Each structure stands twice: as structure tokens, then as C-alpha cells.
Protein 1
Amino acid sequence: MDIQALEERLSILLDSEVITEKSAKICLDAFQRLVRRLGAENIEGSEMLFTHLPTAISRIERGEEIEGPIPELMEEVRQSEWFNEAMAEIRYLETIHGKPLPPEEIDYLLLHYTTVFSQNQNRSVTE
């Protein structure tokens, strides 16, 4: 996914009122940060991450809750070599969001971020 594809996706979600303006801005910021970290304009396999992220932020803003992924899946995610990088991105999201994210949302974001890092592992991951 590149920035143009993300902007189109966010526009559709905004027009259908699935996400909020704030969540779209946070998502764009997170995408641009990841582009810099990976050193690539096109982030492979990031569609699920950058669909889940703005919907998660919007759910949080609306006070909606979700059930987290199954524990067995999360155990696998926590063993990922990309876990620390994924957690760093989530901590950044919490900073720009201005408050902590619920554990269930963190788990889904960990799942998506570790997948994206894994699929883009041949690119440079910088701090």
C-alpha cells in the first residue's frame, strides 16, 4: 500500500462515517512514520493494519469495546522477532492519540504490525 491508496481507503471510510477525522489523521501519521522506518514508499501487506487502525481509534472515541484475539494467536505474536518494533509503533500511536489504547486493541495492532514488519523484513527498519 502506498500513500495514495491509503488516502483513498480513508476517504471511503470517512465518507461512510466508519471512522472519524481524528482517526484518519492518526492513521496517516502512523503510515508516514512506518514509511520512514522501512525506507519504502510502498508497504507490502499493510492493508489490514491501516484499515484496523483508524477503525480502532474511532471505536475508542465512541466508547465501543471489542473482544481481543485468541490467546494462542497472541502467544505466537509475542514470540515474533518483530514484537519490539511493533510495540514501539503502538507506543507512538498512544502518544499521538493522547491516551493509552485498550489491551484488546493493542493485541490486534500487534498482530497487524508484526505481520507488516515480517512481510517487509528486507527493508531497513530504523529507530
Note: The chain has six helices and no strands.
Protein 2
Amino acid sequence: MITLLTTDRNLNVVGDPITRYTDIDITLRWNEPDSGTVTVPADGVSVAQLAPGNRLVVIRDGAVFTAGPIESPGALSWSAAGSDVGAGTITLAFASDLASIVGEVVYPDPANPITAQTAARRSFTATNAETVLRTLVRENVGTLALTARRIPGLLVANATGVGSDVSASFRLDYLGDALRSVALAGGGLGFRVDTSADGSSIIFRVYEPRDLSAQVRFSRGLGNLTAYTYTPAAPTCTVAIVGDVGEGVDRNFSEFVAEAASTWGRMVTVLDQRNAENPDEIVQAAMEALAQGAEAAQFTASTIDTPTQRFGTHYGMGDRVSVELDDGVALTDVVRSVHLKATPREGEVVTSTIGTQSVTTDPHWVRLFRDLARRLGRLEAI
């Protein structure tokens, strides 16, 4: 059963619960904001509920499935027949609360306004990845942030001791990019936002995905696998050359070579780390490049929930699960996204996408824009 609530920006409930809907389409994403649309009868939602800045809370089976700001307060549709008959329908487009976090930027000195910065970069040296993630959020949008930058009701969950040590440095990078890079370097951590049980807080959490490959399996024989694509491919980076301080002939370079170079040959990626403050950052940048370039195959699978294997009950976002191919080979990979589709007539259908790091829901131009922003922010030049 699905119930919809609307709240204002300060998390106060506005109006009555919305229990009637004609279509719900939501996609949850690992380490990315969720997004979705909800279509409801026009006479089932008030003007106050559509006010700018309001949030939509989706409650499924008594628990918050996702919640966040309404980005489009309603496309109104009416027709003399069909689903839009009568009062017509309104479609709300929304994102999860994580969208408000990842859209900010990392201030070099988060304690001061951008016009009064006292540091060149916000740096962390050999610091636990979970600590870095929690600190970045608290300083830039949480309780330690400047008042104008704080997200109302946002709290950071207590540390659980997950992740390895990382060294990182940021200067006006998008907070989402900073969080994803630290999570990857820190051992493939996940992060998400939850709504507290009483609805009064938004809670940012860092967690370590579970390896459920032995317990959670998808296959044609089990009836829970709907499609898959497996494409073997050569690595794209077996050698990382990193430039740090200096100019011209005085520039310092380091070279890192992966074992795959002996088989596939040299596939070189050149990185600029002129702003690195210690050797750990040089190593981290090289290891990230080699890890991303070492992906030797692309794999994606689509699954469907069954009574004995349900998202949220038996597995979660970022967990590692198994998919059996037709030749009997079982591949293990990460749950990257989950899609909920619900209509009053057909009920709820939950599907998931499992795949390698290259599987993304972002349009190509968004990825290019993020890469450009990162390069400009770091003044990349070799």
C-alpha cells in the first residue's frame, strides 16, 4: 500500500494524506538522488500542497520509500474520456532529499562565506572515509554549515566505523562528486538519506554494502531475471602517470603500472595533481584511475521482485548479488538502481538494475558537464 504526504521545507506536513493516485513511477539510485513522478486526481491535492519548496514523502508498506523536494508542482491534464476524465490529473515530479545535498559545493573554508575564504582547499590526510563523508556534509549543508547553506532538519547519523583511510582535497567541487569519490576510494561505501520515524528529520547515513551473492540470486529458472547484457572488454587504463608540483622540465611525475599491463599492454591515463598536499593524494588519484580503467567487462541485468526475494527485505541498494547467465556461469555485481511502478489497476511492480560501475542513469551530457566542472575546479593542466 502506498500513501503520499506533502511537507513544507521545514518538514511540517501540509494538508491531508494523498491516498488516490493514477500512476507512480520512482527510481532509487545508489549514491545518487532518487527521482520520480506521481500522478494524482486534481481534486485530491490542494493548492497549499503544491506551494514552492514543498516536499513529497512516499510511504510504502508503512515505511518511507523515498522523500524529497517537488521540482515540478504539477502538469495539469484533462480529457473527456480515459484516465484524465472528471477533475483531471496533476503530475508531480520530485527528487530525493539527497539532491539538495549533492547540488551544493565544497567550500575550502566552510566556516566562512565564499567572499571571505581563508584556505585554498578543504583537505583530509589519511582520514577514515566515513569520517570524511560525514564531515563534508556537516560542514557544507548540515549543522556546522553557515546558516544560509543549511538544509532544514538535516542530521548526520553516528559513525559506524566503516571504510578505509583516504586522503582528499576539494575546492568548490560539487558535494555529490566529492562524496562519490571518497566513497569509492574508501572501499566502495554507500551513502543515502532517510527520514526519521516521526518525520521531523532528514538523516544522512554512510554504510558498507553487504556481500549477499551467496544468498540473493537471480536467474531465468527462478523466474526473477527479466534481462541481462554481458559485454567483455579490455581495460582502458593500465598505466597512470601523475603530475604534481613544478612547471616545465621541473615538473614532478610519478608512474603507476597495473598488473594488467603485462597482458594488455600500456594504456596510459595522465592525471594532474598539482594541488596535492601530500604523497597520499598522488597515490589515491592513481589508484582511482587504475581501478576505474581496470573494468574488463560491462554487465547489466534487470530483475523483478518475488515474494521470497524483495528489495528492502532481502537485499538493498549497493549490495552485491548474483546473476546466473544461460551458460550456468554466475556473475556477482552491485545493485545500482531500483524502479517502482504502481497503478491502481496493475498494482506494484519493483525491478532492479544490477551492473558494473559503468552502468549509470545519468544522461551523457550530465557526465560531461560534471567532468568539465571537476577539471575547472582543479585547474587541470599538464
Note: The first strand starts at residue 2 and ends at 7.
Protein 3
Amino acid sequence: MKQWLEDKLLQLNVTDQMDEVNGFTRLSYTEEEKKAHEAFKKVAAELNLDVTQDAAGNLWARWSAEKEDAPTIAVGSHLDTVSSGGGYDGAAGVLTGLAAVKRLKDKGFKPKKNIDVICFASEESARFGVSTVGSKAVAGMIEKDELGKVVDADGISIKEAVESYGLSWDSIDQAEKTTDDIESFLELHIEQGTQIEENGAEIGIVRGVACPVRLQVTVKGMANHTGTTPMHNRSDAFVAAAPLITYVEEQARKLNEDQTTPIVATVSTVHLSPNVMNVIHGEVQLGIDIRSVDDELKRGLADQIRSYCETMNSSVHVHTLVDNDSVHLNPSIEKKLVEITENTGYRAHSMDSGAGHDVMNMATRWPSGLIFIPCREGISHHPREHASIEDLNKGTNVLAAYLESETSEDR
């Protein structure tokens, strides 16, 4: 199995080596993503799975049960990447889903339920600034009119990209599945962090996905000449904004000292105006990203930041860009995954996900779970991203055991 995993990992990444200096770039609805999807079709065909493409470009590889009206257990992830990203983010979940099917087929298992391995389209936000388009379509979350107008850096809209991919934008919402179409969904993903190793575990079992509150803080000052304006007569927007950066960091750290549910907060974007060497900054925009699975906690920190901004000795405006409820995954699936992991001989670590994944959309409609495997040094979205074949094999073993358990009886 390890050799199969190694070979198919290369095939799904459309490469002959994983150690690519510039990483992998398979942006949403591009030829590069399509080539990876074609590779998925070939691997699925080798496993005698029936592959179909839905109206959003997602691929469904089905291992059919004998009974025609059998329910369906789905697993999967995505194959698109960020620019110069790694070959494991998303690909690990697609690969291990196919590998779990192979493992069960090799042992002569006959599922009493359909098993679908999904290769979602357009999970990353790298091209359009909008993530998980494929799984949003499956879950009936596409706002077609507004989303179709969103453009990439070259001015190409999602609508145009989807249609150049060979799909119809007008029909994309036909990818939606009913609640009866899927019984449950499970995704495997690299952790993109180091909690698994730090807790002496081998598999992470995720309780929830920490969706963000995002604030845009605009601080206004007075642009003026750096050489002729005395220090006591300045209104430098950057100077006024600087303490807020430290405040956000310090408050998040304090909150983590007081409770067990983690929270993270980052001043992640800074736009300076006019941003030239000889002009005092007249305006600064800061983007603040706050995440926790505890919605009350993250919104409380956002309120603290708003209150702090009111005390700043400058003109400050705070605009809420995003305020999303976090997604809590199915407790029964979580419990079962912990048991299966430990029965398979691995130590499980229960944790939360600070990054979004396709599972967060699937969980709005169907009972869903998320498994993490380690990635080296927690590095992701980078050419150095790496998950060992051994860890991919462990993930495959857990997935296969879960699928066998869930499909051994026609319930």
C-alpha cells in the first residue's frame, strides 16, 4: 500500500517528484486543476469506480452497493492549490479516500452502502478570494448572481472561469445534493499545524472549524512632508495605529491563559497611504482576523478591539468584513473516529481546526467529520509542505476502518 500511495500521490499531483522548488500551482477552474482531476479519474477507473462530474466540476467516484436504493457514505477533499503551494493540502484527503477503497477491495469487502470519493473543485481562495466553491454548490450555498461577478487578478470572473472549464454557470446550482443523497461525509486533511505531534498523537480528530470574524480598521491622520513637518505638529496615521497591532496580540494571549478553548487573532493586512518615503502617512487600513470555535469568545474580542479603537487619539472607523458562525462537527462521528483510531493502534488527539475546509459546508447539511494527519513542522501553503507516506498510510487505515464500519450493514 505504501508504494501505491507514493505512486498515486505523484499521479494526482501531475508530477514525477514531490520536491518541487516552486511548489505546485493549480488554481481554481484552470487547466492545471483540470489535469489533476483527469488524474483522479484514471486512478478511480483503475479501482473500477464509476466517475461522474457534477455541474460545479466536482468529481464523484462511486463504489456501488448491490442494493439500488442503498444510502451513501462520502469521503473526499480537493486537488486545487494556492500559488506555489504544496502537494498535500487537499491531495492527502483525495489520495487516502481512494486508498481506503483499494484496501477494502483488496480484502474482498462488499459494502452494503454506496461509497463515494469526492474530488471537490475550487476549494482554495487563492484565485478569486472565495473559497470552497465546489462544496458550497453541493450544500446549496451558492449565491450565483453575486458570486459570478467576482474576478481574479486578471479581471476574469468566476462565471467566465467556470464556463472556460467546460461547465455552465447558469447550471452550477444543479450540483446541490438533497439530504437523502448522502448519509454522512468524512474528510481527511493535513493538519497545517503541530498540535498532533506536540500532544504525542498520530491522528487528529476535529471537533469544530473556527470560522472567522474579520475587521477592517481605518485610521486617518494628515499626510504631510516628512522633512518639513515638525514632530509636535504631526498626525501620523501609522503611529496612531501601531499600538492596536500590539493590543490585538496581547489580548488574544491573555484570553488563552484564562480558558481552554483556543482563540487566535492576527493583524494580517496593512495598507498605508500614500506609502512613499517622504510623506507622513495620511491613512492606514488594518485587517484583523479573529478565530475560535467559541463564537461568543471571538465576538467578545472583536468588541474589545472596537472599544479600544474608540480610545485612540485619532479618527478611527471599524468595519466588520466577516462574522461567520463556527462549524461544530457531528459528535457521534467524532466519538466513533476516536474509537476507530485507537482500535487501529494509533493515539488520537481531539482538537479544533483554525483553517476552513470543504467539510464545513458539508456539515451544514449532513453529519460530518474531519481527520487530521501530521504535516512536517506544520508548514502548509508552501513548497516545503510535506506529509510522510507513513502518516498517509495511517490515515488510510483509519478511513478504511471507518468505511468498513459504516457500510457493513444496510441501516
Note: The radius of gyration is 23 Å.
